[in-house]
Design brief:
Strand order of the largest sheet: 1-8-3-9-6
Structural class: alpha+beta
Order of helices and strands: HEEHEEEHEEEHEEEHH
Distance between the termini: 65 Å
Number of strands: 11
Length: 205
């Protein structure tokens, strides 16, 4: 039950731990700029490389009954549209800079695999519960590599496309919740409905 990343950083006398996914293209000065903030946890702005292209910054909501939910920020959220340092609830693990000292506030393993939330969301929630503040510098944008020739950023994916993708994803999630169907089952039903509609149009034509 060791957490290799945090354990190795602490044992080697490191003050900071930086995680970067291998499909991210980072600005040359990113590390220097993140370090300059001197925050316990700090990340940079990047988008999902597909689907809704959501900025990987999430809001955590605790319901009156104690249940927790998370949601991606909208593309129009001031945190996303106003470049600068913002305190947030959750950032993605593709770019996260930690002060190693904060790991002492968590029971090991720090980066525990979490199937439903995801490891990055899980560690952010645990840090929030331990009183650690989390920040994101949205003036630093990291490109998400979709393939060898395409980088996903707020500059390469038009705002209209990003907002439409978020709306489409919300409608999909609403349909899943309303029908109580498995995603594959709902997708199959939608395909069948589309085929029936095309058949009806052909008859009318």
């Amino acid at each position: 039950h060791r957490s290799p990343l945090s354990d190795d950083a602490g044992c080697s006398g490191c003050d900071w731990l930086l995680t970067i996914d291998d499909d991210m293209c980072t600005p040359k000065d990113m590390i220097v700029r993140l370090l300059a903030h001197d925050k316990d946890v700090c990340g940079a702005l990047y988008l999902q490389r597909g689907g809704s292209y959501s900025p990987v910054i999430l809001k955590r909501t605790i319901q009156p009954d104690g249940a927790m939910s998370t949601s991606f920020l909208r593309h129009s959220d001031p945190i996303v549209t106003t470049p600068g340092l913002h305190q947030v609830d959750i950032i993605g693990g593709a770019v996260m800079l930690f002060k190693v000292d904060i790991f002492r506030k968590l029971m090991p393993p720090v980066f525990e695999y979490e199937k439903l939330l995801g490891t990055d969301v899980n560690v952010c929630c645990r840090l929030l519960d331990a009183g650690v503040e989390i920040f994101c510098d949205t003036s630093i944008e990291v490109a998400h590599v979709r393939d060898e020739r395409e980088l996903v950023t707020t500059r390469t994916v038009p705002l209209a496309d990003r907002e439409m993708a978020q709306v489409s994803e919300q409608l999909w999630n609403d349909a899943l919740a309303y029908t109580c169907m498995h995603p594959e089952e709902l997708e199959s039903a939608m395909v069948q409905a589309g085929l029936k509609r095309e058949g009806a149009r052909s008859k009318l034509g």
